[in-house]
Amino acid sequence: MEMNGRQRWNIEGSEEMNKSSVTVRGSLNQISRYLNSEDDRPVIGFGHADPSGFPSFRTSSAIVEALVDAVRSWKFNSYPSTQGLLPARRALAEYFSKSLPYQLSSDEVFLTAGCLQAIEIIISVLTRPGANILIPRPAFPHYETRAIFGGLEVRNFNLIPQNNWEVDLQAVQALADNNTVAIVIINPNNPCGSVYTSQHLKEIAETARKLGIFVISDEVYAHMVFGKKPFVPMGEFGSIAPVLTLGSLSKKWSVPGWRLGWILTTDPNGILKKHGILESIENYKEIIPPPATCIQGAVPQILAKTSDEFVSSLLDSLKTNADILYEKINEIPCFTCPNKPEGSMLAMVKLNLEQLEGIRDDVEFCSKVAREESVVILPGIAVGLKNWLRFSFGMERCAIEDGVARLESFYQRHKLH
């Protein structure tokens, strides 16, 4: 169409997408632009929780062989069903039922292309006019980004650092109303590294029941705990309030690039089925791509052949790294890590700006550290907590020590005199 001799185009970028584009990857890309290409030192990546490239965190040969066997079998070259291959769903149901008071069936397992797609599915099926969802602050930002993009109102409740980042349940009850559809929890926690007790999880379930909502439990780091608290799955309390549990192969099995995730339904009272949530998930999966068939085909063998030695070695490395980061970072006056991480591979560290000269906020701090020390850290604002920092310690011990030493040098140059 032409107007006044000029061509008119009836196209425009998505305003909602531009407003809701906060992601870990995007934030780290912004910070990485400040890296000095003339600095010969290796970049220390405290920002990204992907240790799979480091020798200490490399996946086991048995897990790789499971995928190779699946590919070589010639059985997994076709399109899979939208719900996922039955042997994979059955294997996951049996695997996770070992930690639950009841047996999951294969029909209660939905396979996804990584945990991000699981988040997309659940948030999308909950979206309706006027609905809102309760999301923690701080939190993995994809929940809020996806909710905003879908038009679902976000209401943030705080995690309490002096209480080991537990949920502020009074705030949850004050935020909820008749349009609240679900509450999100992340355990073991990203970004805080905390692990919730059984009692606290039960209180969350009881609060959800009182409010008439269900729990979305992000357990990507399930069983990846190395403190004094054992990991307890939220699904243990599914008889109190229904739970959809999200997980993936990415962390415990150290293969994030394989993009295999799942949604587990722990709802023995059938509430989610009665109210159409499961049907909506099934229908949504009809319009999105499933995970690669060969990865699905490898799942039963991966679960069967993952050795205790592989998992314990990974956890030992994480515990050592968590101890080093916690002790050494707290020796630098501009940082305070209030709680030693007990799970996942992440920690939240408070940035004490009053100790620094000429730095306004966490984003400016991370930008300058990247430029001056070739250290990349995720600013806390990316996970909802301004003037904090999220550190990943999923790397070699020597890299952590080198990175913290560079941060000490940065502090000495910029400390307030």
UniProtKB/TrEMBL annotation:
<dbReference type="Pfam" id="PF00155">
    <property type="entry name" value="Aminotran_1_2"/>
</dbReference>
<protein>
    <submittedName>
        <fullName>Tyrosine aminotransferase-like isoform X2</fullName>
    </submittedName>
</protein>
<dbReference type="InterPro" id="IPR015422">
    <property type="entry name" value="PyrdxlP-dep_Trfase_small"/>
</dbReference>
<feature type="domain" description="Aminotransferase class I/classII large">
    <location>
        <begin position="42"/>
        <end position="406"/>
    </location>
</feature>
<comment type="similarity">
    <text>Belongs to the class-I pyridoxal-phosphate-dependent aminotransferase family.</text>
</comment>
<dbReference type="InterPro" id="IPR005958">
    <property type="entry name" value="TyrNic_aminoTrfase"/>
</dbReference>
<dbReference type="InterPro" id="IPR015424">
    <property type="entry name" value="PyrdxlP-dep_Trfase"/>
</dbReference>
<dbReference type="InterPro" id="IPR004838">
    <property type="entry name" value="NHTrfase_class1_PyrdxlP-BS"/>
</dbReference>
<dbReference type="GO" id="GO:0006572">
    <property type="term" value="P:L-tyrosine catabolic process"/>
</dbReference>
<feature type="modified residue" description="N6-(pyridoxal phosphate)lysine">
    <location>
        <position position="251"/>
    </location>
</feature>
<dbReference type="GO" id="GO:0030170">
    <property type="term" value="F:pyridoxal phosphate binding"/>
</dbReference>
<dbReference type="InterPro" id="IPR015421">
    <property type="entry name" value="PyrdxlP-dep_Trfase_major"/>
</dbReference>
<dbReference type="GO" id="GO:0004838">
    <property type="term" value="F:L-tyrosine-2-oxoglutarate transaminase activity"/>
</dbReference>
<dbReference type="InterPro" id="IPR004839">
    <property type="entry name" value="Aminotransferase_I/II_large"/>
</dbReference>
<keyword id="KW-0663">Pyridoxal phosphate</keyword>
